Amino acid sequence: MPLQNITTLPLEHSVPNEVLFEIFNNLPVSNLATLTSVSHGFNAVAEHILYSSISIRDILSTSSPFPCRTKRCCQSIMQRAHLGKSIRGFHIRWQIDVHTSPCGNFDLGPTLLKLERVLRSGILSSIESLELWLGPVNRVFHSSIPHTIERIIYGSHFPQLTSCSLGAEWAKGLPSYSDVLDNFLGSLQLLRHLKLHDHHATLNLSPVALPILSSFRGSPATSASLLPGRPIQYLSLIGDDYDVNQEILTRFAKTTVPLRFLDLSGMSVRPILLRNLAAYLPAIEILKVRLALRHTLHYALTGIRLLTGLSSVLSTYHQLVHLDLSPTSVAGGDAEQELSLCNEWYRACPSLNRITFPSHTDWFLNSEGLWICRA
Asked: For the F-box domain, which residue ranges apply (predicted)?
């Protein structure tokens, strides 16, 4: 039935909220917003669905220097505290417009105060997923102590949180984190997935903190302080590959379960690091990598054939199933060249059965031992 005709329904004969929830749950957001104005009953159900997962993205520019969507969202949550138990996800992202200088004059203070108030209010105590990516906040408050993220999360309590992503744009000399972050993370006993985008030092957590953490994205130093003694199977590194030294590799190997998925798309990686990783992390099954082609693998070749020299590196991975080179930037290459590399790498690493090339083309090994392209 068209939404414009929904007011003709005999609303005096109330439909159970459970039934309305099942009907409304699959509707587009725009239709749900329309339903909130139809009746009090529809509004009550539609609002619970609309607020179940909040995702706000503000684009900051010279003409729009403050995150107005985030501010309105925070005000709306405070006015609807009764919806708190329905909110499962709270995701805030601030980004600078591509045509705006990163050092622009952004007015973030008032909205940050709103964020602090919402997170400390207890209204969001039932959330399971939290994301705070605050873009240029480190530059705007470059001398702020504590770190702006810590100011926002201080005093908040999220006992049901299973996924957490925190950070902002980072550069040397910008604010660092303190024990406020350590204390916050130490309270998240159900956390499984953690991303710390601008934390480049060690964490000081109790050995019993984060007991079921299974995935982490962060700097080598932070990762090395977090992995030992925890069941982390997925690791995504950011920063510089020369920060991954022998001491850090040794700590990577001290997880309570084998590390199986390694994402190196957040750094330019030299072949020597791939060799070292294979020695310390022999159980890697999925490897996603952005190769540093300034350290060419084969000087006599150009384009995608540069990757020919990767064979000797792949021979050190004995359980690798999927090699993903999509983050690597290589000019040229066609299906014939990719197929040739598939066969060459398979001879070096017989466990391979899927390869994703810089062209984003996927090749799979079929049951007959032939490589098949799936664009």
From this structure: 9-54
